[in-house]
């Protein structure tokens, strides 16, 4: 039987809420321990657990048909990928932060500043409108530590509760964008899988209405 392939974040903040949404849609997924792939027993769906940053490329290549992913990841590297539904969870913002004691008046202060981030395109696009050129240092995780170890003057990362900034003596100075979990679809989805997606989307919309 044909199954739609959905990418879900392997570990991290979206993982549990994504699986909860599928469960609330009445879809039972048989999760073996440490398995990277699982099938639903009562819906034509297969779940692939992937790294966040890899998901846009998998969608583009049609390796997966759909994904539950942070909108911020699509803004960073998947602007060509369509959002099918906004899911209302994992809300956060993508912000610039500097050391708590640093003097900060405006974004002009960051001209030539070293900015540690996993979101280079987002930073460059935002800064372009102010004609400010940052010096990007690409880091894949634990970005907030960079100013404390002398690696950067500022950081750009996701802020949710703000606790990571607080713990690292940083203050949020620019809110670049807000984000939430979204359902995204491959530009190469087959007609057959589109039908399954329509059914899934119908269920998701019912669940989201019930949550309001
Ligand atoms: C994420 C993100 C921030 C933090 C924001 O990191 O990169 O560091 O969460 O959340 P908060 O405002 O509620 O503290 P995560 O802990 O997922 O780890 P990583 O950066 O190593 O991927
Ligand atoms: Mg982090």
UniProtKB/TrEMBL annotation:
Family per record: Belongs to the ATP phosphoribosyltransferase family. Long subfamily.
EC assignment: 2.4.2.17
Keywords linked to the UniProt accession: Amino-acid biosynthesis, ATP-binding, Cytoplasm, Glycosyltransferase, Histidine biosynthesis, Magnesium, Metal-binding, Nucleotide-binding, Transferase
Gene for this chain: hisG
Cofactor(s) the record lists: Mg(2+)
Keyword Magnesium attributed: yes
Pathway(s) annotated for this protein in UniProt: Amino-acid biosynthesis; L-histidine biosynthesis; L-histidine from 5-phospho-alpha-D-ribose 1-diphosphate: step 1/9
Annotated protein name in UniProt: ATP phosphoribosyltransferase
Domain of life: Bacteria
The reaction(s) this protein catalyses: 1-(5-phospho-beta-D-ribosyl)-ATP + diphosphate = 5-phospho-alpha-D-ribose 1-diphosphate + ATP
Gene Ontology molecular function: ATP phosphoribosyltransferase activity
């Amino acid at each position: 039987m044909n199954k739609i392939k959905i990418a879900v974040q392997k570990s991290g903040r979206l993982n549990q809420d994504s699986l909860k949404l599928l469960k609330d849609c009445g879809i039972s997924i048989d999760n073996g321990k440490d398995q990277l792939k699982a099938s639903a027993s009562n819906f034509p769906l297969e779940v692939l657990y992937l790294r966040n940053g890899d998901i846009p490329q998998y969608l583009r290549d049609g390796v997966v048909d759909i994904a539950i992913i942070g909108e911020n990841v699509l803004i960073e590297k998947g602007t060509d990928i369509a959002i099918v539904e906004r899911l209302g969870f994992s809300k956060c913002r993508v912000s610039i932060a500097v050391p708590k004691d640093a003097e900060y008046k405006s974004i002009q202060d960051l001209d030539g500043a070293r900015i540690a981030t996993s979101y280079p395109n987002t930073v460059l696009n935002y800064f372009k409108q102010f004609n400010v050129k940052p010096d990007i240092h690409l880091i894949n995780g634990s970005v907030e530590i960079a100013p404390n170890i002398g690696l950067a003057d500022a950081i750009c990362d996701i802020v949710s509760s703000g606790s990571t900034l607080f713990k690292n003596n940083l203050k949020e100075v620019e809110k670049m964008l807000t984000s939430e979990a979204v359902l995204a679809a491959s530009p190469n989805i087959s007609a057959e899988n589109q039908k399954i997606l329509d059914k899934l989307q119908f269920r998701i919309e019912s669940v989201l209405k019930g949550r309001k």
